[in-house]
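Supplementary Data S3. Sequence and structure tokens for construct A.
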Amino acid sequence: MSSPSIAIVGAGLGGLVLARVLQTHGIPSTVYELDAAVDARDQGGSLDMHEESGQLALREAGLYEEFRRLTHPQGEAMRVLDKAGTVFIDHEPEDGEGGRPEIDRTALRDLLIASLDPGRIVWGHKVTAVRPLGGGRHELTFAGGGSTSADLLVGADGTWSKVRSLLSDAQPEYCGISYLELRLSDVKERHPDSAALVGPGVMFALSDNKAMMGHGGDHLHLAASLRVPRDWAVSGGVDWSDTPAARDALLEEFTDWSTELTDLIRNCDDPIIPRLIYALPTGHSWARTPGVTLLGDAAHVMSPYAGEGANLAMLDATELALAIAEHGDDVETALTRYEAAMFPRSAAAAEKSAQGLDLCFAADAPRGIVAFFAEAGAPEEH
């Protein structure tokens, strides 16, 4: 029998890993992506790849050695501070220590895209509707009126997934945290003090239900985060597209933080972008529905405070691809096997993420997260 036609919605890391691992097993698929081109928007900062998930996925994809060449030296370093700039943890692994190498999200995505056969990704195809056709087949309708159908539909389309509606009525809920996305370019030349403050790896500066977090390197990718109502970014009268006004408004929220930390706001590039943190209910699952499933944020979006999102998406994609390869045209057996493992794994990760949020935005932060890291083996500053 011929292989089932497979449509993947979303060219994020999960959708791309799924297409790549399927391709290594000789199984064709088509990825439909709403962006018009590979460079249509910024892909964000740095990611740490976990050995048991992200790295496993890259090994199955046949891309591990190329990935290692793109990782950051010293990217696993970590600093934890409070609002006064007091350093609680300053940990920089020695060469060869640590199992979670860092890579720019854009570089990782580009690596995956380049590994796919020409035409595997169809750019500029925003899904506006999905509907069952019977017998496990589904139809996708795109902005502009075109459509296609597939024997297997995989929603890798993120937090506000269109495909999820075929399986679940659950909607992501606001986690109580909003953040402003900040970037400082060429920091070693332009802002060496800020480069030294953040360090080469990840920085957590935490106090009073507020945080500045992000990754170091040649460019700093940061988030200035606050525990605020969901409408905070739109109810305060701030025009966030006016970067000087946005800087002033954000500095008002961090008036009692040290100058070295507020300089990260004061000197940031244009623009400052407001974001909200959403999560699906912990333990989100659905009844087995013929011909369709979800992976990554579409299945289990959670807060980022356990560092699991990208890694889970890549592991989901790998396990789904391997199940499809093993079971051939028996799509339902493949999906049943995949979901049986994915549901409990994602529930455990979502619980960890919720706990991480509470530690980062606790009244006594950063003490709780310092204790957490100490228990995990990261030494305190002396």
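Construct B, processed identically:
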Amino acid sequence: MSRLDELTSWHADWQGLRVAVLGLGVTGFAAADTLAELGADVLVVAGSAPEDRARLLGVIGARLVQADLAADPVAIGDLVEHRPELLIVSPGFHPDHPLLLWAARNEIPVWGDIELAWRLRDKVGTPAEWILVTGTNGKTTTVQLTATMLAAAGLRVAPCGNIGVPVLDAVRDPQGWDVLVVELSSYQLHHLPRTGPGALVPWASVCLNIADDHLDWHGSAEAYRDAKATVYANTRVACVYNKADAATMRMVEEAEVQDGARAIGFGLGVPGPSDFGIVDGILCDRAFHEDRFETAVEISTVAELRAHGLGAHHLIADILAAAALARSFGVLPAVIHDALEGFRLDAHRIEIVAEAAGIRWIDDSKATNPHAADASLAAFESVVWLVGGLLKGVDIDQLVAGHVAHLRGAIIIGTDREALREAFRRHAPRLRVFEITTQDTGQVMPDAVRLAAEVAELGDVVLLAPAAASMDQFTDYAQRGRLFAEAVRDYLGGEAGDESASAPRA
């Protein structure tokens, strides 16, 4: 047994372990800080280093090397001299990155931050149970919904992971937790082992949906799906899957899980005896109650969810998935019902920015791939669509073809415009389509909003649902959405209505 195999507890002997941490983002710093606290010998290798984090590394006793990470790793002398016994990789590093290939050649094990956190989960009292959430779309909303339901039941719960709070920070929180609801990206799942001392054993898990995404990172749709399927490995109680998505059902069927784990389906149709679904407008649980073969238990109603701004079909699907996860932990249906009454979506998720002259302006900048944009577009009858950015190697043609019938017009933004331009030419040659060609980040949205206003008519929705990543022109999807909202308000002046903080009643 190697030394690393024995490191499965906060209280194991990490002292002096030579570790290299790749990257100094939020995840990289959390890993370096954790390992330094454990007494490991930590070297951080980063292409860039925010001043505050670089300064703190010296305080915690870790060293920093700034280097060209695309160069031959042997050229990074400090890394070679450090002779790391372990490499901790931040999620953004591609599998074929030179440093990871160097580690493989030199038989240096590579862990992600999630595996490290799992091994250290016993720092504070009894380790929290983990509920894992992944999928192409809806992850963050489902994590927040699940955490809200669990908290309403009186449980100490932390939403963490890809949602923005590193899992390592959660496991080190001195108050401790009953449950961690962990959002996992395909990048993080790629580095997780399914067997061995570092393999996660979650309470419950869900893959919400699968559509082509991040193909430039994974190399193929098959590799992307394989990474996502890791979420179900070793699940103890409930493997929740999307009945409308055959890929997630197949993942559950093929998963190696713990004895006693159940497959729980969710969908917008009538539920079977081990499912969550909808009957006559009522959201029902037919999985976690004694008479599930005969009856169903009410969770909420579609009418109530619409009144709370949660009535879009993809949001209802997320609510059903979250309810299944919460019910697997014993949360009562009445508690879930009450928790939903107070739940509100985050910014940039089908958020109404303004309403004026019978036109709604909606920010769904979080729709960063075609699958998410498809759900957003389907919620509205007549749309002026703001679309484009970094397409990440995915095919946009089917999305355009599926929605041209209810488009009033389209405004193309971003750098990957050619594929969109050609798709609109093929499927909607008469549609009014404009391109924003400016390279000035501050001018993209004012130009797009002005053109959208010229096209939109009474009853239309002007929808920012880019179906693409934002980093070609913006810092992130939040900045893209924020600049859109600012441009709308500047354009409308005093004409904006009172619904700017509401979600659409779709």
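The first strand starts at residue 18 and ends at 22. Residues 313-328 form the longest helix (16 residues).
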